[in-house]
Task: structure prediction
Amino acid sequence: INAKMIVDKDFKVSEIDPRIYGSFIEHLGRAVYGGIFEPEHPEADESGFRQDVLELVKELQVPIVRYPGGNMVSAYNWEDGVGPKEDRPTRLELAWRTIENNQVGTNEFAEWANKAGTDVMMAINLGTRGIDAARNLLEYTNHPGGTYYSDLRRSHGYEQPHNFKTWCLGNEMDGPWQVGGKTAEEYGRLAYETAKAMKLVDPSIELVSCGSSSSDMPTFPQWEATTLDHTYEFADYVSLHQYYTNYEDDTPNFLARSMEMDHFIKTVISTCDYIKAKKRSKKTINLSFDEWNVWFHSTADDNKMEPWQIAPPQLEDVYTFEDAVLVGSLLHTLLKHSDRVKMACMAQLVNVIAPIMTDNGGKVWKQTIFYPYYYTSVYGRGIALDPVVESPKYDSKDFTDVPYLDTSVVYNEEKDELVVFATNRHMENTLKVDCDIRSFEGFRVIEHVVLENDDPKAVNTAEQTNVAPHNKGESHTDGGTLHGILPKMSWNMIRLR
Ligand code: AHR
Result:
């Protein structure tokens, strides 16, 4: 089958905010304990952080990591996680019904983030707590010294403030499962007053108002309209969360789920701009898609989990090749909306619905979804372009007119490099793409990376890497045309210079 594209330097979406390649570490399952932190592991450094895990995180060039939750943050007392470790309380963790011994907290995480070369996106507890806990935590992390909480931090061995810039005003506060869940009115008022106090403590911070926990919520998008009506003055972003599933084992339908993400983003943009119009405001609220991924493989096992264990395996989805192909498309979608999506977090980073997996005391390895995330994060920097695409289409159970070709294009001005990311959703046929690259005269293909596999359900394990990319793609240029050759059901990156 054949498709056509036109790519032009002047067809710009936006400068890409690197923070769209963010991720997430929650105190959940083995993300922290046994994931990033395992003092008994032979690879642990002097602080207990696994260096083998750190290496893979650095490879991904993750610019920002959301912490400490997630659902967990809605019943979390940040004070439990600071100060001498022997004095920290062991608590019932209510969101995931485990035991939390608080051996990692805010300062240790800041230290880990430093080592990983990433920023921290902090989330505050607006479930069981509110203004007071939030402003105290911010004073603790960001104020230089000479006050109660900043001096408390210094007494804990952290002389310099962490200066966390980005803060989430709670997590999924619309969810009935959330400890201290709220109606839109309740949340809107609390978030507004908390945001006001936080910006008095440190006006340089950026705040994320809590959006719906998914587009399937019955309160979506009225939740966004009502809450933003309250928080508009102090919020800089609104959050979006969505996980994609393939319970029905319908691959063509599953591979089209990025269209759902696209529709979700468009609806949230419209809702933000409706409130902007209503308020006659000059300010634009941008989007933080701070939880996204495939999540469904582990749900049945998690439902059988015995409560009150320390760091049990939870949400340990083992990702297939087809999951990786969808993740590639979800990344195209974020890039296509990079004019409004300024932050996004693949949820999560290690062990819990994650690209990186570990064995306690043992190996670390890359899941299938590591690869599209890695290539897009490392090479998808610069300006997102808006290609004109003409592709044959198919219909699936939930979607109509799904283009077989899904693509995003980035121009890196610094390196004078054009990067075409492209997915072929066709399960049997190669897709030949004739791409007019008129404004990139003389550019040649320097690398064509292909992620392909004959088995959509192939997975990677500690012992065996069954799904990994190769760079023997056959795309080439001829005059001002790039002839893209995308194998059946594949994700591709074609770099030209
Ligand atoms: O990422 C796993 C969970 O999914 C998070 O804790 C929560 O915010 C969402 O429901």
